Amino acid sequence: MTAPRTAFPVALTCGEPSGIGPETAVRARAILGPNEPFFWIGDPRHLPDGTRWREIAAGAEATSVPGDCLPVLRHDFPAPAIPGRPDPANAAEVVGVIARAVDLVRRGEAAAVTTAPINKKALKDGAGFAFPGHTEYLAALAGVERVVMMLACPGLRVVPTTIHIPLSEVPAALTADLLETTIRLTRDGLIESFGLTAPRIAVAGLNPHAGEGGAMGWEEIALITPVLDRLRAEGMAISGPLPADTMFHAGARAGYDAAVCMYHDQALIPIKTIDFAGGVNVTLGLPFVRTSPDHGTAFDIAGKGLADPSSLVAALRMAADMARLRGRT
Which of 89, 110, 235, 312 makes the best surface tag, with the fewest CB within 10 Å? Predict the structure, then answer.
């Protein structure tokens, strides 16, 4: 048997147990096998009926679990999980599993963290969860003020500067400080976690045609270009601001390593068009590696055997690769 790629497996959180997280974890284990080890943190009662699993006491034990068994670091929940019907009684432990995974990776007992999808409303209703999502909670656990959300697949990496806000609020939220921080964290993440020595970053404009010299908006001239000029003067390889409608065809993508966009859909539409099933959510700026599949809890298909594990498999593989580049394995 080939030796495992890493001695320190990735910690996979259970996410919302009434969603597709448990079943995709089992399918990911069947695909990855023992040579790309991870362990699942959650309540074994929430796994699909018939799942072969083995309880472990520490993450490192996952490397010795047979490939047809899911290594499980047990975390008991108050209630069973009914597919498609989140139970508020379980909300606090969903949050607790995330905190436990972060603690494990920060203590060197896991190489990285991959998080299964959560349902923010369920966590708010059941546990008073006060964060907009995973990313902000992870930043708080790590004591980091700012992080960046990157979506990545083999053909494209994108970073939205503003994320989960209405489109009408984007111009006011888009500040020079926010844009500069986003670009710097993107550059640092490409070097540290993707092994690029001189990353090339393309930056989109906010308006159609990148403002067309002020005819369609002034944000490019007044805000975006001065930031890019300042960073270029430091030696960063930055292009832009570019019209977003010409940035994402194959020829354009060959000219950069990541695209920084101004708002959520400007970034996520192209990557989900290119690789809907295989995209990975990466958090840059944390002191540890965190990835996540780029989909939600999918309550409508939970428990029906229809969930596609492709994004979770890609997230686990990317987490392990990033951890190796950061010397965490």
Answer: 235
Instruction: Identify whether the C-beta of residue 187 lies closer than 8 Å to the C-beta of residue 199.
Output: yes
Tell me the domain boundaries of the chain: 1-147+286-329, 155-274
Binding-site members are: 134-135, 164, 209, 264, 272, 281, 290
Binding-site residues for substrate, in ranges, read 134-135, 272, 281, 290
Say if domain 155-274 classifies as CATH 3.30.1360.120.
no
What integer is the mean pLDDT of 162-186? 95
Contact indicator for 318, 282 with CB cutoff of 8 Å: yes
At position 292, the amino acid (one-letter code) is: S
Domains 1-147+286-329 and 155-274 share a fold: yes
- The structure's pTM equals 0.92
Q: What is the pLDDT of residues 108-154, one digit of tens each?
A: 999 999 999 999 999 999 999 998 888 889 999 999 999 999 999 99
CA–CA distance, 99 with 261 (Å, rounded to integer): 30
CATH homologous superfamily for 1-147+286-329?
Answer: Isopropylmalate Dehydrogenase (3.40.718.10)
* pLDDT, tens digit (0-9, with 9 covering 90-100), for 235-269: 999 999 999 999 999 999 999 999 999 999 999 99
Binding-site annotation: residue ranges for a divalent metal cation: 164, 209, 264
